[in-house]
């Protein structure tokens, strides 16, 4: 199967992950909350492991050690910083109770943009190397599970019905597939190798800015140990993939 086949399969599977919210139909709220944070910690570890053990080394090897790799990493980090600053600015200017529904719509739109960029980045990895693409997809998928569970809970809190929240999550996730096809199409016109370090910068930002703070604010030793173990497991998994794949 060629790069396009992997991109299409990866995009469809990633969209299916959005339906993970359906499991919350059978879970009590406190159970869902206890499940999300260990998954967030695991996601943070896998994002860091994917960026530092796979994506950046691959980009450096292919570029011959060019400094442009690190510039693209910083560009990917900075792009997500700018994107989140816009979202936070919008939230700050829309803080009245009567605009709770528009805020939830903004969150779905923002997630759609996020998924589009993720699809572009993962597709770029598949185009560069199928093995790297699979690893990048797995890391992105590990991030999507707790994100989709959390987003689903926020939409319900914002007044959406369960069915509508699930459909909103699914539709916003389809932009991952759109981004992947877009990246494949433009790859015929330009070298998309820069997307690998750019995506690594995205992963570093998401892990360090969004995920680690979520699991680093508890004072109970047992909870902290669980989160640290989950974080370490994410890194260990990506290290194991690197070793077993012979990279």
Describe the overall structure.
- The chain has helices at residues 3-17, 29-63, 68-92, 100-128, 130-157, 162-186, 195-215, 221-245.
- The protein has 247 residues and is mainly alpha-helical.
- The protein has one domain.
- The relative contact order is 0.22.
Question: Beta-strand level of the residues, as a percent range?
Answer: under 5%
Query: What sort of overall outline do the alpha carbons produce when their principal axes are compared?
Result: globular
Distance separating the two termini = 21 Å
Uncertain segments are 90-102
Task: Give the topology, please.
Blueprint: H1 3-17, H2 29-63, H3 68-92, H4 100-128, H5 130-157, H6 162-186, H7 195-215, H8 221-245
Helix pairs in contact: 1-4, 1-5, 1-6, 2-3, 2-5, 2-7, 2-8, 3-7, 4-5, 4-6, 4-7, 5-6
Provide tags for this entry.
globular, mainly alpha, about 250 residues
Short structural summary:
82% of the residues lie in helices and 0% in strands.
